[in-house]
């Protein structure tokens, strides 16, 4: 593994069994939420992970952090496979890997003050107490743009954007090197979204952070990502540097997603064609044979219904899972 790589996942799968029976449970099917995924994230990089709701991106983020133990595959953090690691050892590594959730209101305990929320990881993982702890909390609140005088407030006394800042302060408290940002701006007003993106970018530079930034559309990740991975029904279908992906996307699914991203130039916007995909996303319980995307693909050919396309590097750093790419 190259030494500029912080995270590498190999052939990662997460299948959730569907069972019947109460006493003797019998597996009758499985949901393939994540299915044989491979990618890496370099130190200090932001990898955007994009896909429609239910494509498995949140499950993938949680498997990466081992919040859910994957069904199979490997997750390397600084060259060490987390999937084979015992729980107590994993706990110490997890301090360096944090998560920021989509809805900060759901993820913050409403009975705890802002100060208690930020202090919690410090109490669990460090020996910082008393005055030093209070100073640390004030410093963290300041770093994320909150006034330290807000320490005694409860989550409901903050606005949505302020709550997300609080969630970021909590994630930063024990100085992680990697953060999964799980749709951190989806629940926020458009006017606040840019502020949170800017904050995350500033923090990345200041604290040398590496991000997996999950979002459901390509317009959100464009600004913040160095590279972008596109996910469809549990599989990565395209990975490329941001500029290459937005300029010359190769996978028909990525091209369709890009056609929905607004372009600021009104003349270009008026002249381009939006690609509407036919049909619904197939159920992850009954995946189609061959390429997962073939029932909706506008350019599919016969082989697509029989053979699963592998993720191939078609240009340096540009990976695509399509027979026709
Ligand atoms: Fe479309 Fe075939 Fe490519 Fe799948 S492999 S995206 S069905 S062309």
Number of domains: 2
CATH architecture of the largest domain: 3-Layer(aba) Sandwich
Bound heterogens, unique:
iron/sulfur cluster
Radius of gyration: 21 Å
Average pLDDT value?
Answer: 92
Say what the CATH topology of the largest domain is.
Answer: Rossmann fold
Strand tally is 12
- Class per helix and strand makeup: alpha/beta
- What best-fitting shape do the alpha-carbon axes yield? globular
Span between N and C termini? 27 Å
Major beta sheet summary: 8 strands, mixed
Helix content: 25-40%
Describe the 3D structure.
An eight-stranded mixed β-sheet has the order 6-7-8-3-9-10-12-11, sandwiched between helices. Strands 2-1-4-5 form a four-stranded antiparallel β-sheet. The two termini are 27 Å apart. Helix 7 (190-207) links the parallel strand 7 (178-182) and strand 8. 31% of the residues lie in helices and 25% in strands. It has helices at residues 57-64, 87-94, 104-107, 114-125, 130-143, 160-172, 190-207, 218-222, 242-247, 252-259, 266-271; strands spanning 5-20, 26-42, 46-50, 72-77, 80-81, 97-100, 178-182, 210-215, 227-232, 235-241, 312-315, 318-320. It is built from eleven helices and twelve strands. It has two domains: 2-19 and 29-96 and 176-270 and 311-320, P-loop containing nucleotide triphosphate hydrolases (Rossmann fold, 3-Layer(aba) Sandwich); 110-174, no CATH class. With 325 residues, it is an alpha/beta fold. The structure holds iron/sulfur cluster.
